[in-house]
Write a structure and sequence with these properties.
single chain; 210 residues; alpha/beta; TIM Barrel; five-stranded parallel beta sheet; two-stranded antiparallel ribbon; 7 helices; 39% helix; 17% strand
Length: 210
């Protein structure tokens, strides 16, 4: 949210957001690359960044507004590893989640989510009454996790959280969830690496394209 709106009332903020959504959909409505609209990003997550409480009824109004403006579906999202999906799962036409295997935490350093196997994601979808074919992996980890956003870490350290082997393993995990699609998160990173003389990730992604 723009800083100038932070001091405003919730009502004023919601009016501004509604105006923004209308302008956004109108601007991109004729873009053929858009297959779904994303309604908010993990709207009920309160443990990451600056996240005020979100009124579910307003999120429902946002989704209804997009439906009124365009015929394409709306996707709601939640964290794949730290969310339970039951609130977000029924908000949109599709549900999007994350799939991360290696992350960094200030307290524990690099953490491996290897215990999150495809079955866990399928069970979560079942419990939240989400049709797996209407579930997507909206963020499939395909880039390094930079501690504290530090962009100056070495390439060697970057490979601790992402490399070609990890990328291909993540893609295989995504396939085994049985979800309808997966979006790789990190295309700018592969391009940047290629410019640094390391085209391993770039080639790995190309190998996945039929």
């Amino acid at each position: 949210m723009p800083p100038y709106l932070l001091k405003e009332t919730e009502s004023v903020q919601n009016m501004a957001l509604t105006k923004f959504i209308k302008a956004l959909v109108a601007h991109y409505k004729n873009e053929p690359a858009i297959v779904l609209w994303q309604g908010e990003n993990e709207p009920f997550v309160e443990w990451f960044g600056t996240c005020p409480n979100v009124d579910r009824s307003f999120v429902e109004k946002e989704v209804a507004l997009v439906h009124a403006l365009d015929t394409r579906g709306v996707m709601s999202t939640d964290s794949g590893e730290l969310g339970w999906w039951y609130r977000e799962g029924q908000l949109g036409d599709y549900f999007g989640t994350t799939l991360y295997q290696v992350v960094w935490n200030e307290r524990f350093g690099y953490m491996h989510y290897y215990f999150f196997r495809p079955l866990i994601y399928r069970i979560k979808a079942l419990v939240a009454f989400i049709n797996p074919r209407h579930a997507l992996i909206a963020e499939l980890q395909a880039e390094s996790w930079f501690p504290n956003g530090n962009k100056n870490i070495t390439l060697a350290e970057q490979k601790l959280s992402m490399n070609t082997e990890q990328l291909l393993a993540n893609v295989e995990l995504a396939r085994r969830t049985g979800f309808g699609a997966a979006y790789l998160w990190g295309s700018e990173y592969w391009y940047w690496l290629k410019g640094q003389g390391d085209d391993s990730m770039w080639k790995a992604v190309k190998s996945l394209i039929p």
